[in-house]
Amino acid sequence: MISVLHPNRILKVNLSLTGSKSITNRLLILRSMYPSLKIKNKSESHDSVVLENALKSSSNIKDINHAGTSMRFLTAFYSILEDKEIIIKGSKRMHERPIYPLIDSLKLIGADISYLEKDGFPPIRIKGKKLNFKKVQISSNVSSQFVSAILLVAPKLNGGLVIELKGELISKPYIQMTLSLLNDLGIKTSFKGKLITVENLEEIQEKHISVESDWSSASYWYSIVALSERAEVRLNNFYKNSIQGDSVLTKYYKSLGVGTRFTENKIILTKLKDFTPPPNLNLNLIDSPDLAQTIAVTCFGLKINCFLDGLQTLNIKETKRLNALKNELKKLGANIQVTESSLKLFEAKKIKNNIKIKTYDDHRMAMSFAPLSLKIPIFIESPSVVAKSYPKFWDDLRKAGFVIKPIQKYN
Fold first, then answer.
1. Nearest to 298 by CA among 325, 320, 323, 321
2. Is pTM, for the whole model, over 0.85?
3. Does residue 287 have an active-site annotation?
């Protein structure tokens, strides 16, 4: 456990964040199929390291721990590798996260996958084989990663693949990210209505891709600036026309007092002068649900009402995030209500200090609550969980003047 506080709520810092986890993970799968792909500025996140190590390992047992993206992407990847028999397993929580929508679709195109414990959930056994079907349906209302997993291997199928999306489409920008990366490699795709077409391409010319820094990681700095008295935060290697869906936070946080200026592939975040917090913030985060925790905590710190919708995917993440968020915010004095897909937070009259925040083995719980230390001293349990996506998070906070100390005993 650590204590976190900032002495004066004024900060100025220049940082280089790790490469995007989402882009890196997609490129790692593509590089395994197309070795002439070269990747620069890969994510340093635990998730990306786990995925890369699994792909490099000669073992037929892949233990991906908490890495949900690895579970989904590797399931599709090993399904198309002929004469490979692979077992994929993970942590206890991973074995509670459903994977059947992906596996049902893979079986429809001939994949040989079996459940080793509970039907519909990891661990799983995969016997790789050549898949030749031309069209498949997949549920698009559970996780966009199920769709992306199939999209990534589609160009290696004879004749390519047509995917029909069933149900409400969630996290659409992540599907568009996958298609954009396929296009960068010369793979032809189309996305019309609920149909996605990916053409076959056996080989690509040598290609070098430098990964943009991670917008999800940048979200915590937006929260920090919003909760500060005065701030200037420079974040390197960010692009105005980003393919990352979470770049929408530039728009959301303008409503919370943060200005964004793009210059020379970097962003400069500043606290807007004469900013008055709005009485309410209402957002549908169906395309960017990973921002929910950070936005909710920011609104709590600014003492404004907040309604967030489109959050149904948060219940199958590292923890049941809406319940976890409710539990910890209530400890701080929040009046908050959650459903299976939404969150309603009412203006706080007072923020309790010196509260211990439980992180539930969830990196975003630790990082979304840390900016609140600009308002009150706070304690964070299991701070090492940030390694999943942003290993240098606490080091970067120290560079910005935050005082972070290990705590052996909490009274």
1. 325
2. yes
3. no
